[in-house]
Amino acid sequence: MQQRAVETRQLILEAAAEVFDEGGYKAARISEIMHRAGTTQGALYFHFTSKLDLARTVMLAQRASVVLPPGPDGLQRLIDTTLLLAHELQTNKLLRAGVRLAVEQEEIGFHDDAPYREWAEVFRGQLVAAAERGQLRNGVEVERLAVLLVGCYTGVQHFSKLSCRRADLPDRIADLWQYMLLGIAPPQVAADMVVNPDTPLLAAG
């Protein structure tokens, strides 16, 4: 019974992600989520107290929906992670819905920077490793750079979504790195980094 409950909850989350991704929070209907999940109203409200609770859960699940690419921690793995995310945003409905809901928060009526802080922490971990390996210029502050990178990424992906439904997102993220590397990495390190938007990396595990 416990395993069945876990599976039902996941089905509801995935169905909700589809509905939120397609039309946003306001247009989403609980009845449509139930229909896609193949579950009852009682089952849905057993796991989630409201549509708002369901939206928050989807939003906060975005980080867990992505397995980071393999490789040693450092600047290359950070680049690989952002390019993997670019491809995941084209196909991963839970990630896409979580990102959309995070952007729509003020319109929905709640304020939670946890999704942004989680990604900033992921990026910070790779930047710390990069600094330890001598891959960053002197004076680069990893905490501030991690937050800046999250902000830049959010803006680029949103622009790409509006302009072409993220079809060009890997190329836009590659552009971001081509210019950012000039400012944060020594010339030889920047030259050694591989920024390839064409091939999505296989995630570890």
TrEMBL record:
Record's keyword terms, sorted: Aminotransferase, DNA-binding, Transcription, Transcription regulation, Transferase
Task: List the PROSITE patterns hit by this protein, alphabetically.
Answer: HTH_TETR_2
The record's GO molecular-function terms, alphabetically, read: DNA-binding transcription factor activity; transaminase activity; transcription cis-regulatory region binding
Which positions make up the DNA-binding region?
Answer: 29-48
> Which residue windows are coiled coil?
none
Q: In the record, which residues are listed under signal peptide?
A: none
| Listed Pfam families | TetR_C_45 (PF21935), TetR_N (PF00440)
Gene3D superfamilies on file: Tetracycline Repressor, domain 2
Occurrences of domain HTH tetR-type (ranges): 6-66
The cross-references to NCBIfam families, in alphabetical order and at most eight, read: ScbR_bind_reg
Name of the protein in its database record: Branched-chain amino acid aminotransferase
The organism's lineage? Bacteria, Bacillati, Actinomycetota, Actinomycetes, Kitasatosporales
